[in-house]
Each structure stands twice: as C-alpha cells, then as structure tokens.
Amino acid sequence: MKRTILSLMGAVALVVSAQQVAITKTTPLLQDGHEAAFYPTLNQTGDKLLYSDADAHGLKLLDLETNKVTTISNQNGAGYAPKWGEDGNVYFVTAQVNPENHLVYRSGLRFNLDSSTSQVLLEPQNGAVTIAAGTQGMAIKGEKRTFVSATHLGTSVYTQGSEIVISTGDKERRYSPVESHAGYLWASLSPGGDKVAFFAAGRGIVVIDLEGHIKAELGNYEMPCWYDNNYIVAQNASDDGYQFTSSQILLLKADGTFKHELTAKTSMTMQPTCGGGKIVFTTIDGHLTMLTLQITD
Questions:
Q1: Residue 53 has pLDDT above 90, yes or no
Q2: Sheet of strand 83-84: strand arrangement
Q3: What does the chain look like in DSSP terms, one character per residue?
Q4: What is the average pLDDT across 84-99?
Q5: Pick from 6, 41, 115, 285: most CB atoms within 10 A?
C-alpha cells in the first residue's frame, strides 16, 4: 500500500456546517525499515506511543520527541489494551499457556519509564484480567485476585460483558444502557470526567453520563477514543466476513450532531488513539500516521 497523503487522507474537504475541520499536519511514524505496528496507544500528553504487532505479541514504546523505540515486553498479549497510568507508567497484561493443563494464565504488570523495568503486580491466574484506569490510581482486576495502586482510584470505567462499570470514590455501579448480547468494549472516560464512551456490539458507539443515562448514540463505529471533551475519534470499517473491505477514521461530536471523515474509506486506516491534541492510527499493513487538527465550532 502506497503511503501517500492522497491515499491516506482521500479528498478531505472542509465541512460546510456549524463545525469546520482542517487537518493541519500529517506525520508518518516509524520510518526507516521499522516493523509493522498495530494497536497504537497515545499517552495523555501525546508525546509517547505504545504499539504492538498484529497479534498483540509484545509491547513497544515510541518516544515521539526523540523517535527512540523501547521494548517493554516480548510476551504474548502484552500489546492488547495496555493503559497509561495517571503516574505516567504503563500497565499491561500478558498471557501464557500452562503446558501441564493447557489453560491460559494472565499476569498484570507495570513498566516504570524512569527505570525502564517491569514489575509483576498481579501473579498469573486463569481467567479474564482487566485494567481499569482511574483518575487517581490504577486497578488490574482478575477473577481471583485484584491489584489496586491506591485506596481511592478516583473515577474509573471498564467493561465486563454487557455492563459498564463506573467507580467514583468508594462507589462502584454497573449499567447496561443498551442491549448487546455480544457485550461492550473500549470504554473510556472523557477528559472532563463527566461522560463515558463505549462500543456496544451490534449497536455502535454509545455516550452516557456517570449515572448511566444515554446522552447520544453515534453510529455503528468501533474503537472510540476521546479527542477532547466534545469530540470522539473512531474507526468505521466493513468486511465481507473474511477480511476488511474498507476502513477509515472518523471525527464525531459526542452529542451526535456532527461527523467528519478524516480519512477515505479506501485508505484502510484503523485503530485510532488520541492524546495531547494528536491522533495516531495505523493501516491494514501496519503503517502508523499522526494527525493534528483544527476544529472551528
């Protein structure tokens, strides 16, 4: 796939509406023979990026200011849904198959950026392990044991089946605002801490308040991430049951009143992440690109 701005961006025009969107800068990342990169995850300030391979095997960190790449882990599963902690460190889960009983055991780890070392926070256990990023701390929740970095995590959100779990202070509440037998994914708290966006399988992106009330449904798109407190970036992909036939990156207003195409459907761009006013996404071939925008309301 040719990496030209034309193929990635398509014919991007300003939208004639109350909002206008302009792409102010397009930057290809990981040039000079680097491996294909998937599952990008920006930190809040937008100066560091996590990524993995197509199978979420291993986890690497790209410093966007120095272009230095650091290997965090070479283990299976490390690249699937790692999270940046409020302490600036990286929290991730690895998976290993026990050769004796052939069951999968997952561990929770923290990578300290200052020392460039990883620490096991949650010993291996069979069953699902989920990371919940709070505004004041982090939790790694397993079916048998759980790690918490602080007595009070502040506000945190995560999904469990067809439930959104929202914790504020000492209270944990569970909501199922829309029906989805296949479950919820990709829950995240807005930068202002007053809204939650998530994906409901078969339904699309839903935005709720902290009491579980629906504020908007944005369409059947995937992998929502908060660009700021009013806008969400998402993936719009289609397939034929075997492979992707199209994929693009969209900018959506969180109240459901506005949509703008950041890339063309033919660009096969996917897996967006946001941080520090930047957007990073990859392509089906694993080529990373970073965008900056100007939005005029």
A1: yes
A2: 83-84, 90-97, 104-112, 117-126
A3: ----HHHHH-S----SSS-EEEEEEEEE-S-SSPPP-EEEEE-TTSSEEEEE-TT--SEEEEETTT--EEEEE-STTTTSS-EE-TTS-EEEEEEEE-TTT--EEEEEEEEETTTTEEEEEEEEEES-EEEEEBSS-EEEEESS-EEESSS---EEEEEETTEEEEEETTEEEEE--S--TT-EEEEEE-TTSSEEEEEETTTEEEEEETTS-EEEEEES-EEEEESSSSEEEEEEEEE-SSSEEEEEEEEEETTSS-EEESS-GGG-EEEEEEETTEEEEEETT---EEEEEEEE-
A4: 96
A5: 41
Among 122, 117, 43, residue whose Cα is nearest residue 73 = 117
Split at pLDDT 50, 70, 90, the class of 31 is: confident
What confidence score (pLDDT) does residue 18 get?
62
22 with 37: CB under 8 angstroms? no
Contact 1, 284 (CB under 8 A): yes
At 14, is the pLDDT very low, low, confident or very high (cuts 50, 70, 90)? very low
Distant-in-sequence contacts of 204-207, Cβ < 8 A, 24+ apart: 205/232, 205/234, 205/252, 206/177, 206/178, 207/232, 207/254, 207/255, 207/256
If you search the block for the tokens 């302490």, which residue do you land on? 87
Q: Which pLDDT tens digit goes with each residue over 134-159?
A: 999 999 999 999 999 988 899 999 99
Q: Region of 253 please: left (phi>0), alpha (psi -120 to 50) or beta.
A: beta
Residue 297: pLDDT band by 50, 70, 90 thresholds?
Answer: confident
How is residue 183 written in tokens? 């479950």
